Amino acid sequence: MRKFHRFIAAISCLAVLLATAPFAVAQSTGNGTPTGSGLSISPTISQFTIQPGGSDTIKITLKNITVDNVTAQGFVNDFTSDGTTGNPKILTNETSPSPHSIRNFVFGLNDIPLQRGEQKNITIGLQVPKDTTPGAYYGIIRYKAVPVGQNAPAPGQVALTASVGTIVLVTVPGNVREQVQVKGLHVYRGGEDGSLFFGPPTSIGVEVANFGNGFVAPFGSVEVRNMFNKNVLNYQLNNPKQPGNILPGSSRVFTQNIKAINSLGRYTIIASVSYGKGSQVLSVQKTIWYIPKWIAVLFIAVIAGLLYLAFRSYRRYQRDNKHTVRR
Q: Is the pLDDT at 2 greater than 50, yes or no?
């Protein structure tokens, strides 16, 4: 009897926890504009297609937004993808360039003196060597604001100033291989990915991997259907106005906030992904359940009540059976 009462108490505690906890019972898983306190830069991303032996120019607008005169010191960094958002992870301590680096493409990158509030238009050259292998090359051209005059750093000191940068993507045409895979379809509530939710899911993520040697800007559609096969949501994958790229040998999760899954039931999410000229479409789907927390709590309470009544009936039956045997 005591064990059963403990069991009922445990179920009741679970119901209370479900009623009060933040709801996303799910399985855990795991290009903004660069800004700085000293300079502003535009554009923040530039894309080029340059033949081996060819050249082009990057046109940048740089502005001093500090209260002092500065020298904008320019340099080139390699970067990698963070594997999730597509935002770059700048490699500042690399001694040798990556195989996709644009360091030996860039020329005419000079320090730029800027008066307080001054803005200058800058032209930087790109020259692709004749023996460059076709594929994707990328890097980030960064400028750091170093104060001059009375505010200049003393010898041996480092100026602690922010930097800004523009991402440069270069495609060298030729034998560029496209190989793409849709690795997964994720449904999130907050930061949690799962298939069973007690609160409305807040976003959908489509994970796409690029196994080729060029840039990939996937496109397509994502639709959500309820248990009655009714379409409750349909949106375009990847922003068509400024589509995001996936770097070679990396993956990216394209995330979209949603509000359409807000009624009890089973939902099916279908993602149709294409790339390049759109000759191939990759599809993936996932089924999830959304059960509002009050229904989950009510269900647990009903089950606990039924178990308790069944136990009471069984005990009563045992007592009545004993009395009959004694007679």
A: no
